[in-house]
Specification:
Helix 3 crosses helix 4. The chain has five domains: about 190 residues, Rossmann fold (3-Layer(aba) Sandwich), CATH 3.40.50.300; about 70 residues, Arc Repressor Mutant, subunit A (Orthogonal Bundle), CATH 1.10.10.160; about 220 residues, P-loop containing nucleotide triphosphate hydrolases (Rossmann fold, 3-Layer(aba) Sandwich), CATH 3.40.50; about 130 residues, Orthogonal Bundle (PCRA, domain 4); about 60 residues, Thrombin, subunit H (Beta Barrel). By secondary structure, it is an alpha/beta fold. The protein is globular. The chain contains 29 helices and 21 strands. The protein binds a DNA duplex through helix 5, helix 9 and helix 25.
DNA sequence: CGTGGGCGGATTTTT
DNA sequence: TCCGCCCACG
């Protein structure tokens, strides 16, 4: 591929970023501005123009999906054989490093990965084992403390309790948790990152090797990095490196789980030579949608500053619907969806977005009533299902008998007469001797030859040993097949309950579980076929895969259906038509964020993310009455509605309230009000004052045109200044010059 | 050992 | 209101 071919498909800003010199680079990439394209083309550029070896490239993302897309596109552009480039998630890459250097990292060779559920169970066991009150020490809170400590790079010994007994206890539990993990040979997600960081930090020779190798480090969604991820990046890039990071501070919506937008500002401080590029041209949405989004996000402070613009259609104004209640809101959306579908649109081009999952219910009911196929995202994913985790627990035991979490999960599944009492004594014995449950039980059933429980335990151990022996050397999917059958798991779920006719629902659930187990076998088959990872035995690799890529959500795709999801899940996606629902104070912004400025600004960013998902039409809806936790509330419309310039909003019908609204909601076939949109319909905007143009003002400095009203000397422009924020100015007096 | 009723809590979620 | 979890009972 020639250099022209790399640069030609790009706009000027993208081209500048892609062909930037080998210095640290921060790309501020707005929503829909072609950020993935810039990353992939940058990689191509490094290889073609800078003659970088494909082996010298390390590209990091947050999700497997993003990593997969990036890898696909790079390999397509360059024709590089798969697997040469290190493209992966932070966790995936950390995992790979730890497998390669498990000894230096202080891990066991066959270490396994705990998902958050496994982690919480383990924390709970530790709390119980220490006779602590679970309501005082909630496993969720303790796990959160442990994870956020790790995210900050802190080990128990780095933490001080001070005068705070609660904190001191948390630190103690963190320490006990670490010991339990070490004993069982397991690591949680945060541990992967922290260990990978410590591995390099504490082994200069290793670090030197990898620095030499990965000369080119690229990072996607940089605004989502947490402290340890950023520290890790700085280690690998080194003081003289040139990391290429892409992010959007306006789309930072994961502060609550440790992401630090400040890393973007910090990056510029840490790398004084860093160059900043802005991608502001948007290829996704209409001008109306972008103006609404720009106007909203301008209310946030401390932004790096960026305004989206487009050469495309002005588009329809944002439609605002004030519903009577959540049912009316859902019925309105359902009617609009039906209209869109009737005029030939695909249902999958339509998205219903909301702040919290509970809101989906009303929409589901309306869609069912209207016979509109829909798909709700969220909920359990494949590898998180109970029956799948049971099966995985057996597989984990095959590799590592000391995995107490797995042991407890299946020691009595299917039931084999090993009750809570037995397990409890086992736990005590194991803890007393500082050994695993497996070892404790093995010691015991040897001693007490005769007892019934001892027999059961021995039976279980023999089963596991036998499965290990029988499956050794078999292809992966056959290994799993054998384990499923001989462990009794299949029979357990397949067992009919003949006596009860009423148990039909149960039969259906059982069937679904059996299907899932069958799916596990076929997932293993295709995993083995596709996996190029030769560094790990297949079963180890498959278990890591199951933990790190928990799989698709809800697989019953196929039929064209309306997409329903939370705003967080919608990040990174795009839809022709977007309904942003539940725009109410207390719901969005959420009650818990209203009194904290930082949290409130994050809610605003979330709203910005939601709005910028829409390509053609955007609806904002709110309800005047809503049932929340069983109580009727009368929430005020979200402040975010008011923060969108009124000029680009059209109310779907005149706001009604009270009794009138009841009738109106029932009777009115709502018609959109005459569009209130006033920008560039008849008259062209003043020269140089194109939407999104950069301008300079004598006093306020540089800014970007958000909005233009009228023409000639009476025209007014709304400008978002980098320093001063958003202002309306009269063309006549403002003396704006195009930049 | 499995189930039903009482109780408390109820953003957002990837890895 | 509704869901998930814990405990007591059969």
């Amino acid at each position: 591929m020639y250099l022209d071919a790399i640069l030609n498909p790009l706009n000027e800003a993208q081209r500048a970023a892609v062909s930037a010199p080998l210095v640290p680079v921060l790309v501020l990439a707005g929503a829909g501005s072609g950020k993935t394209r810039v990353l992939t083309h940058r990689i191509a550029w490094l290889i073609q123009a800078e003659h970088a070896s494909p082996y010298s490239i390390l590209a990091v993302t947050f999700t497997n999906k993003a990593a997969g897309e990036m890898r696909g596109r790079v390999e397509q552009i360059l024709g590089v054989p798969p697997g040469v480039l290190w493209i992966g998630t932070f966790h995936g890459i950390a995992h790979r490093l730890l497998r390669l250097h498990w000894r230096e990292a202080g891990l066991t060779q066959g270490f396994q990965i705990l998902d958050s559920d496994d982690q919480q169970r383990l924390v709970k066991r530790i709390i119980r084992a220490n006779d602590l009150d679970e309501s005082r020490w909630e496993p969720r809170d303790v796990a959160w403390f442990i994870n956020s400590s790790k995210d900050e790079g802190r080990r128990p010994q780095d933490l001080k309790g001070g005068n705070d007994p609660t904190r001191a206890q948390m630190i103690r539990l963190y320490g006990l948790y670490e010991e339990a993990c070490a004993r069982a040979g397991v690591v949680d997600f945060a541990e992967l990152l922290l260990r990978a960081y410590e591995l390099w930090r504490d082994h200069p020779e290793l670090l030197a090797h990898y620095r030499q190798r990965f000369r080119h480090v690229l990072v996607d969604e940089f605004q989502d990095t947490n402290a340890i991820q950023y520290a890790w990046l700085r280690l690998i890039a080194g003081p003289d490196g040139h990391p290429f990071v892409v992010g959007d501070d306006d789309q930072s919506v994961y502060r609550w789980r440790g992401a630090r937008v400040e890393n973007m500002q910090q990056f510029r401080r840490d790398y004084a030579r860093a160059k900043l590029y802005r991608l502001e041209q948007n290829y996704r949405s209409t001008a109306a949608i972008l103006m609404a989004a720009n106007g909203l996000i301008a209310h946030n402070s401390g932004r790096l500053g960026k305004t989206l613009w487009t050469n495309g259609e002005p588009g329809l104004p944002i439609q605002l619907y004030a519903a009577f209640n959540e049912r009316d809101e859902a019925e309105f959306v359902a009617r609009r969806v039906a209209d869109y579908v009737a005029s030939g649109n695909r249902r999958s081009d339509i998205a219903v977005l909301y702040r919290s999952n509970a809101q989906s219910r009303a929409f589901e009911e309306a869609f069912i009533a209207g016979r509109i196929p829909y798909r709700v995202y969220g909920g359990l994913r494949f590898f998180e299902r109970a029956e799948i985790k049971d099966a995985l627990a057996y597989l984990r035991l095959l590799l590592n008998r000391d995995d107490d979490g797995a042991y407890e999960r299946v020691v009595n599944l299917p039931t084999r007469g090993i009750g809570d009492r037995t397990v409890e004594t086992l736990r005590d014995e194991a803890r007393g001797a500082g050994i695993s449950l497996w070892k404790a039980a093995a010691a015991r059933s040897d001693v007490q030859q005769g007892g019934r429980t001892a027999n059961s335990l021995r039976g279980f151990h023999r089963l596991v040993d036998r499965l290990a022996k029988e499956t050794a050397g078999l292809p992966l999917h056959e290994q799993i097949d054998v384990v499923l059958k001989e462990s009794g798991l299949i029979e357990h779920h397949g067992r009919e309950k003949p006596s009860q006719d009423a148990a039909r629902g149960e039969t259906a659930r059982n069937e679904a579980r059996l299907e899932n187990l069958a799916e596990l076998v076929s997932a293993a088959r295709s995993f083995a076929a596709e996996s190029t990872d030769l560094e790990l035995p297949p079963l180890d690799a498959f278990l890591a895969h199951a933990a790190l890529e928990s799989g698709e959500r809800q697989s019953d795709a196929g039929e064209d259906s309306v997409q329903m999801m939370t705003l967080h899940m919608a990040k990174g996606l795009e839809f022709m038509y977007v309904f942003l629902c539940g725009m109410e104070e207390g719901l969005f912004p959420h009650q818990r964020s209203i009194s904290d400025l930082e949290a409130l600004e994050e809610e605003r960013r979330l709203c910005y993310v939601g709005m910028t998902r829409a390509m053609k039409h955007l609806y904002l809806t709110h309800a005047e009455q809503r049932r929340l936790h069983g109580m009727d509330t009368h929430p005020a419309p979200s402040r975010f509605i008011k923060e969108v310039s009124r000029d680009i909003v059209a109310e779907v019908r005149p706001r009604a309230s009270g009794a009138r609204a009841v009738a109106a909601a029932r009777l009115r076939r709502e018609q959109p009000a005459a569009p209130a949109i006033r920008f560039r319909t008849e008259e062209p905007p003043p020269p140089g004052m194109r939407l999104g143009a950069r301008v300079r003002h004598g006093k306020f400095g540089e800014g970007v045109v958000l909005n233009v009203e009228g023409s000639g000397p009476h025209a007014r422009v709304q400008v978002n200044f980098e320093q001063q924020g958003t202002k309306w100015l009269m063309m006549q007096y403002a003396n704006l010059e195009p930049v």
